[in-house]
Amino acid sequence: MKDQLHIMVTRDSGKIVRFPCTIKKLAVLLSASIFVLLFLVVTSIFTISLFTENRTISSRITKLQHQLKINEKTIASHEQTNQTQKMSLKLQLSNLELSNAKQAAAFKKEKALLLSTAVNELKERSELMEKIMTSVGITLKEEKTEGTKNSGGPFIPQQEANQDDLLSKADTYLKKIQYIPLGRPVQGAITSSFGKRKDPVNKKNGFHTGIDFRGKRGEKIYATADGIVKKVFTNGGYGKYILVSHNNGYTTSFAHLQTFLVKKGEKIKRGQLIGLVGNTGRSTGPHLHYEINLNKKPVNPSKFMQFASLLKSNSTLPEKK
User: Fold this and answer.
1) Domain 190-313 maps to which CATH number in 3.40.50.150, 2.70.70.10, 2.102.10.10, 3.40.50.450?
2) CA–CA separation, 40 and 23 (whole Å)
3) Beta-carbon neighbour count of residue 318 at 10 Å?
């Protein structure tokens, strides 16, 4: 009976209720109560933790959903902007293509006009050079054509004033004309023309084989065509004398010089400085005696100077250096 305990509960009516219990049962009940209490505490803590974590996750989901909406709006706005920019770029590209097409058409028209003008000018200059060369006795050799045997093909008529032919002809004329003595060797006035005249020294009638130009001592003398210097020496009454061969039957000679500025055998170009005006030899004063010979016969230099002025006005010949 010692292990028994009595739990007494007094009611409002004064009645006492007794609950007999052993210590062993009380210990078991107490242990069970503690276990249940601990289980409830742990469960509560776990539940609270899950609830807190759930709220945190819900809050994050809400924020992410909000951010997603913002991003979707931003993306939509960017797509609209990109679409607008694409349309603008397409419009600019179309405008550029149209502008380029217009420019190309204008350039093509201008090119055709310039080409037509150039061809006409080239034709006129070629005809002028041909006239000059014919007048001074130089003709171009026609190219020999092949026979009609072992040949054929469709007939294609040759176009008038073919550009390549004109360029080839003009190039040939320019090469030829570089060796024709054109222009003035000095800028002084003419004091004695080509042909019959009264000799300035003995006053007798004679024949002048060139043209005399008044000049000052030391005035520059220029070559009138490309060629090779054949003679540089003191030639009696001609005084200091230069003879230039142009390898086409033409020669030019310069007399009464003060100074030579070229040597025998030297290749020279039109407009090159070759000497200085003087008063050497049979002379009545400083001047230049200028002669042109074709196949060793003197010709009048006047017409060569006239043609040079025509070519200069047409910008066909190079100017003196």
Assistant:
1) 2.70.70.10
2) 25
3) 13
What tokens does 27 get? Answer: 């210990």
Type of residue found at 53: E
DSSP state of 189: P
Q: What DSSP string runs through 149-192?
A: TT------PPPTT-HHHHHHHHHHHHHHHTTS--S-SS-SPEEE
Mutual angle of helices 163-177 and 23-135, in 10-degree steps? 60
Please state, as a whole number, how many other Cβ atoms lie within 10 Å of the Cβ of residue 241: 23
pLDDT per residue, tens digit, the chain (321 aa), is 456 666 777 777 777 777 777 777 778 888 888 988 999 899 989 888 888 888 889 888 989 998 999 988 888 888 888 888 888 888 888 888 888 888 888 888 887 777 666 666 666 666 666 666 666 665 555 544 455 555 555 655 555 445 666 666 666 667 788 888 988 999 889 999 998 888 777 778 889 999 999 999 999 999 999 999 999 999 999 999 999 999 888 999 999 999 999 999 999 999 999 999 999 999 889 999 999 999 999 999 988 887 766 555 544 334 444
**d(Cα 255, Cα 240) in Å, to the nearest integer?**
6
Please state the length of the chain.
Answer: 321
Integer Cα distance of 321 and 308 in angstroms: 16
**Rounded-to-integer distance, Cα 276 and Cα 66, Å:** 101
Within its chain, how far is the Cα of 62 from the centroid? Answer: 65
